[in-house]
Write a structure and sequence with these properties.
By secondary structure, this protein is an alpha/beta fold. The chain has helices at about 1-35, 55-60, 75-85, 100-110, 120-125, 145-155, 185-195, 225-245; strands at about 50, 65-70, 90-95, 115-120, 135-140, 160-165, 175, 180, 200-205, 215, 270.
Length: about 290
């Protein structure tokens, strides 16, 4: 009996987190449907969009040798491709790490790489990074409208001028074996581009239609960049005014301060402050008990 109690105590936090995530997903799908057709991107923001074959081609267009973040890590397969093709000086991996053991496996996988793992809600972790510290970021965490919008908004001040906010699943539906899931990525990305007057620079063209996108931030050193930056500031102000009238879900957890690890050392694991809640929330990194997220 004692063994069963210990087992129940061990798995209860993971089960509780998954129930919370399921509730959020159900609520988010209703929101995504309500927003359908309300976030068409302005024509001038896609007039010069370049189509690429796939995500690997997108990685090849990103600035090399900088500080990079991936939000939503799963098993680390795309992180491995970033490391191989982009050679970042450092790669931050951020995930909710809801599946027991996955975070530890990812940490072991990249034990000899310039990688740090962060556990928590992606937008909260990113908000702790220094401003203008990232060359580019790849958003692939939660796919409902509000979560993607939060991720994009959190990333905006953290990326260097001329850098990129990129991401995955610029699509409406995910068709699985037993269910169909409604995404809100397209609406969130289009709204973000419209609000900040940022052009959609790259869009991939996989046959699966799980497309990747990349938004290049203005380089303020150039005349065109200064003009675009000014337009973005005007759009940002207008968007902030509009957002204050919208009901937005409250953040579910608090994140710990992000940390940077020197290249060549073992991955560092950053977890939420234990005073904020009894057990840390999982993100695409590693957990207290060695779990990892999808």
């Amino acid at each position: 009996m004692l063994i069963f109690r210990k087992l129940a105590w061990a798995i209860a936090p993971e089960l509780s987190l998954k129930v919370k995530l399921l509730r959020r997903i159900r609520a988010a799908m209703a929101t995504n449907d309500a927003l359908a057709g309300m976030a068409e991107i302005r024509p001038e923001l896609i007039a010069n969009t370049v189509t690429l074959a796939n995500r690997d081609a997108l990685i090849d267009q990103m600035p090399k040798g900088g500080i990079v973040a991936e939000l939503g890590v799963m098993h680390g397969d795309f992180a491995a491709r970033i490391l191989a093709r982009n050679s970042p000086a450092h790669l931050h991996l951020v995930d909710i790490w809801a599946e027991m053991g996955r975070m530890a496996r990812v940490a072991q996988r990249f034990s000899d790489q310039p990688v740090s793992l962060h556990q928590g809600w992606s937008w909260e972790i990113v908000s702790t990074f220094p401003d203008q510290s990232l060359s580019w970021v790849y958003v692939d965490a939660s796919h409902d409208f509000h979560s993607v919008e939060r991720d994009l908004t959190a990333c905006l001040p953290k990326v260097l001028p001329g850098g990129f906010i990129a991401g995955h699943d610029y699509t409406r539906w995910k068709v699985g074996t037993h269910q169909v899931v409604r995404y809100g990525v397209i609406e969130a990305v289009n709204s973000f581009c419209n609000r900040h007057s940022l052009p959609l620079t790259y869009l991939t063209a996989e046959a699966s239609r799980h497309l990747s996108f990349a938004i290049r931030l203005p380089d303020r050193a150039s005349p065109r960049g200064r003009e675009q930056a000014a337009s973005s500031e005007i759009g940002r102000h207008a968007g902030a005014v509009a957002e204050r009238s919208m009901k937005r879900p409250a953040a579910m957890t608090s994140a710990a301060p992000a940390s940077v690890l020197r290249p060549g050392t073992t991955p560092q694991i950053t977890k939420p402050n234990s005073t904020a809640q009894k057990r840390p929330v999982y993100s695409k990194g590693a957990t207290e008990d060695g779990s990892a997220s999808a």
